[in-house]
Write a structure and sequence with these properties.
7-stranded antiparallel beta sheet; alpha+beta
Length: 546
């Protein structure tokens, strides 16, 4: 088994696992040390041989280890295709190399053709190599040797792992050296798709718009032997001032796309460029463009890996904000469950014991999904927790929460909240509802009631006053609180699970425990949806009076 370890700068190394354990961390005495990765712990993780192969174990690291988007607890048996995130490292688990040692090589074709006009030549790698094989004259042999030397040097320089921005300077230096030019620049698309200067030697360049367009749109390689004979160029002040005579402009081409161009020129005291220079620079630009694209994609992949790691850590933090277990209330069984449809979500539930023995129950659903909803949920959770000290009744609690969050929420954002306070001794639940789904109550006789009474969602207007309602829970009654991830789960035809199916299910639970009620409900919703993942965050709270 092998590991492909990619660092934060997109550099990578392959490590063979054989025999002894391998530790990874910042400390120098690790088998694999990465002292410049601040997100790694000194001793972050360990790879150990086991009876079935190899396993990975987190060494109590500060930021944790993620395996296949799941935070690692205990050990995980490694299989080819597994992906491990530790600090800013990405570790891919690979099979042993095959005996054939074959490599996949992609040759990028270029459009072939003859001279379109006197100053324009369209070439291809096949044409260049063909000319090198057929060259018989001494100058051709010398030219071929020069080209081979330049390409070997380019291969050596571009094979090293450099950040994307450093690549452009390296490529320009290689281009100038290969064709013996004194000035040049590289224009390439930035992250916004805008053509911009990425490297330059010299200043005050004037490039014809038609030259730029032909190189980029037609992927043509241009040789202008004498700019003084080009009407569009010879009157330009910079051309005259810099005494520019000979110009090369070739596309940075990957597959069928030109991502930029290399431009070089020479003055009157230098030799004019030749067709051989054009062909050499065309091939070199093609190699450079592939390397640029590889570095760009590697940087994007690294950013995505870091984002996945951060989301996994955010998910762990968010789950830590939910109740660690069910509250112990004599005569009652209370349980809750939450599962986000993405890594993090906007649903929330909580159990808040009041000092006088009552228990506050809260379930909420933030408008939207993902990270924005998770941030709003965390803000709400902090404010709900602060209510415990003052132990307000439900209506006052929602009124205070709304007054606090409404001025701070972005336009169009809101939260639905059901807030209840259970008096266990009397079996009375006093509650207020801010736009949340109406709870369902299964009576001991098997009848299901819809618990009405509500108000405006939180966050739209700061001066809303919420009304209080009461509900009596008799022995044997079961109260179900839920988010719309349950009732609005769609089937393959787009039909919602609906409140009526939820009510029918509730009639079948009988004397099941709260945990069993939640588990069976989740199975039914997933079966209805037709996939293990859900289309929305799902939260359920069950309160059952024994």
């Amino acid at each position: 088994m092998r590991l492909l370890i990619t660092g934060p700068d997109a550099s990578s190394r392959t490590v063979e696992l054989a025999g002894k354990p391998v530790t990874i961390g910042r400390a120098a005495d690790n088998e694999l040390s990465y002292p410049n990765d601040p997100a790694l712990s000194r001793y972050h993780l360990c790879l150990e041989p086991s009876n079935s192969g190899w396993q990975v174990r987190d060494c109590g690291s500060r930021n944790g280890t993620v395996v296949n988007a799941t935070v690692l607890t205990g050990t995980h048996s490694l299989n080819p295709g597994d992906r491990i995130f530790a600090g800013q490292l990405t570790i891919d688990v690979l099979d042993k190399p095959s005996d054939s040692g074959s490599r996949i090589v992609t040759f990028v074709p270029q459009e072939s053709g003859g001279i379109r006009r006197a100053a324009t030549i369209v070439t291809s790698l096949e044409e260049v190599l063909g000319k090198a094989r057929e060259g018989k004259e001494e100058d051709s042999k010398l030219g071929t040797a020069r080209a081979v030397s330049a390409l070997i040097r380019a291969g050596q320089e571009l094979a090293s792992h450099r950040p994307l921005e450093e690549l452009f300077d390296t490529i320009l230096d290689l281009a100038l050296s290969a064709v013996n030019a004194r000035r040049g620049l590289i224009l390439a698309n930035d992250a916004n798709g805008t053509l911009s200067v990425r490297a330059s030697r010299g200043e005050d360049f004037s490039i014809s718009g038609s030259v730029r367009d032909q190189v980029l749109r037609e992927r043509a390689a241009l040789l202008i032997k004498d700019a003084q004979f080009e009407q569009a160029l010879r009157t330009r002040e910079s051309i005259v001032a810099q005494r520019v005579r000979s110009i090369l402009a070739v596309p940075l081409q990957t597959n069928e796309e030109a991502i930029g161009l290399i431009y070089v020129d020479n003055g009157t005291t230098y030799r004019p460029f030749s067709q051989e220079d054009l062909e050499l620079l065309t091939v070199m630009a093609n190699v450079a463009a592939i390397r640029i694209e590889h570095a760009r994609l590697a940087a994007i992949e690294q950013q995505e890996k870091l984002m996945q790691l951060q989301l996994a850590q955010a998910s762990e933090i968010q789950q830590g904000l939910l109740p660690p277990g069910s509250p112990d209330v004599e005569g009652y069984e209370i349980a809750g469950f939450n599962v986000p449809c993405w890594t993090v979500g906007g649903d929330y539930y909580d159990f808040l014991p009041y000092p006088d023995g009552r228990l506050a129950l809260c379930i909420a659903d933030v408008c939207g999904k993902g990270l924005p909803a998770a941030l709003m949920m965390s803000s709400l959770q902090a404010r709900v927790q602060m209510l415990v000290e003052s132990a307000p009744p439900p209506a006052a609690a929602l009124t205070a929460l709304n007054r606090n969050v409404a001025p701070r929420f972005p336009l169009g954002r809101f939260i639905t909240v059901f807030f209840g306070v259970l008096d266990p001794s009397r079996g009375v639940l006093e509650y207020a509802n801010a736009g949340h789904n109406y709870p369902l109550l299964l009576r001991a006789n098997g009848e299901v009631e819809r618990i009405r009474g509500g108000g405006l969602v939180l966050g739209l207007a700061p001066d809303v006053q919420y009304a209080a309602h009461e509900l009596l829970l008799n022995p044997g009654d079961t109260l179900l609180l839920y988010s719309d991830g349950v009732t609005e789960a769609p089937s393959s035809t787009g039909e919602f699970f609906g409140e009526h199916r939820l009510a029918n299910y509730l009639k079948t639970v009988g004397g099941s425990s709260g945990i069993e009620v939640i588990r069976q409900l989740l199975d039914r919703v997933r079966a209805w949806f037709g996939a293990p993942a859900l289309s929305d965050d799902l939260t359920v709270v069950v309160v059952r009076r024994r």
